[in-house]
Amino acid sequence: MINNQRFLIFLSKLAEVYPIGRFKYAPGTLASLIALVFGYLALIILNIKYFLLFVIIFVIISYLLCEAHIKLNNEKDPKEVVVDEFAGQFVALLGIIDTSNIIYISTSLLLSFLLFRFFDITKIGPIKKTEKLPGGIGIITDDLIAGLCAFLTQAAILTSIEQPLIIKTL
Q: 3-42: buried (b, 16+ CB within 10 Å) or exposed (e) per residue?
């Protein structure tokens, strides 16, 4: 039993992306910013096909980590759990521009970050409803939908000004 408890604590800390989730001010925003950097580096290293596989696996693991945190702490949607912000920001990254121009890339990354935070914080439309789902699925789904909304919004903006998206390289 003690080993199970220690393992749950370990998984709970992973769900918090410890110590990021324990940051006093805006841990979700900090997590999203760090996810933006790591996600972009992963996207460059893995290319789009493997990055999509990485995101799917990450989402499944994140769900399991959220479930472990809930089991340990008996909380519905604890603010210290920020692994869901990573998953959502990774989804939002799919809408970034496909170019070698550093200014365009930086602007696109900033747009991805701002749109994801906007949708994650405001929880407009279906995002609020998915947050009410039970357990780990409710914790992670609202961030995935926010990431999807950010991705679609950014894709619409960039394609309207005829900019190529990374997702188009599939």
A: eeeeebeebbbbbbbeebbebeeebbbbbbbbbbeebbeb
